[in-house]
Amino acid sequence: MNLKGIGMTSQRTRDRLVQRLRDQGIVDERILDIIMSTPRHAFIDEALAHRAYEDTALPIGFNQTISQPYIVARMTEVLLAAGPLRRVLEVGTGSGYQTAILAPLVEKIYTVERIAGLLERANTRFKLLGLRNVQSRHADGTMGWPDRGPFDGILVTASPRVVPDELLTQLAPGGRMVVPVGQSNHQELRLICKSEEGITSEVLELVRFVPLLGGKS
Ligand code: SAH
Q1: CB of 168 within 8 A of CB of 148?
Q2: Distance CA 65, CA 57 (A)
Q3: Could you count the other beta carbons within 10 Å of the beta carbon of residue 204?
Q4: At 107, which helix (H) or strand (E)?
Q5: Cβ distance 157 to 124 under 8 Å?
Q6: Most confidently modeled range among 42-46, 109-113, 213-217
Q7: How far apart are CA 148 and CA 136, in angstroms?
Q8: CB atoms within 10 A of CB 63
Q9: Which of 68, 84, 107, 141 has the most CB atoms in a 10 Å sphere around its CB?
Q10: CA 151 to mean position of chain CA atoms
Q11: Which atom from ligand 1 is nearest to the alpha carbon of 212?
């Protein structure tokens, strides 16, 4: 993996990406700074590296995709909007890009991926980038990560038809979950908040994610 960049264009294309995210309404400067300094090309195959700073999802093998930078920024911003988070669960590590963007902003991230081949590569990237507050697990994230919960934040980067009960259970009181819910042609990005009075759910926007699947491979 090449962390050095793909030539002189790299910084300029990152500037352009961050400007695009600003234009789309991302305002949290911490997130924009991290996106600016994170080498997204290191999270995808070299053959696609020249497209790494486009605001688009790209294939990462195993029929999966690295999320679109705007969606990564938006989900991170919404998750953090009520204040700092200590323990966060991410379901769907994928390339590890979303993990790498969120990691500097929280105390600890527990990330779960069901495809071993993707998780291995993501773990290599976490080491190379020196991310020390990430713990990962090869498992079906539909079940959450019971012995690491409860979590102040849960970020789901694959789409369930309905929010799994286990994830709701592992959300701490006062906790926030950002999750794309629905079927392949119509998914709603939702913010779910848990309080003493109960659970609220707010639709943020329409999105398109790969499905949350059961089991591991
Ligand atoms: N955040 C990732 C997005 C990857 S796509 C990135 O930026 O690269 C969603 C990922 O969720 C895929 O890697 C897929 O394998 C994973 N996934 C789907 N169902 C899952 C499940 N039940 N448990 C854990 N991971 C799951």
Answers
A1: no
A2: 6
A3: 14
A4: strand 106-113
A5: no
A6: 109-113
A7: 11
A8: 8
A9: 141
A10: 15
A11: 19
Tell me which residue of 28, 61, 30, 26 sits closest to 43, measured CA to CA. 61
Distance 136 CA to ligand 1 centre (A): 12
- The CA-atom distances, in angstroms, between 178 and each of 2, 72, 99, 126 are 31, 11, 14, 22
Amino acid (one-letter) located at 180: P
Per-residue pLDDT at 9 exceeds 80:
no
| pLDDT tens by residue, 81-139 | 999 999 999 999 999 999 999 999 999 999 999 999 999 999 999 999 999 999 999 99
The predicted structure's pLDDT at residue 30: 98
Q: Give the type of residue at 23.
A: D
Domains and CATH numbers, the chain: 56-207 (3.40.50.150)
97 lines ligand 1 (CB under 6 A): yes
Which residue, chain included where needed, has tokens 């329409």?
206
67 and 57 Cβ atoms separated by less than 8 Å: yes
Q: Are strands 58-61 and 64-66 parallel, antiparallel or unpaired?
A: antiparallel
Q: How many CB atoms lie within 10 A of CB 186?
A: 10
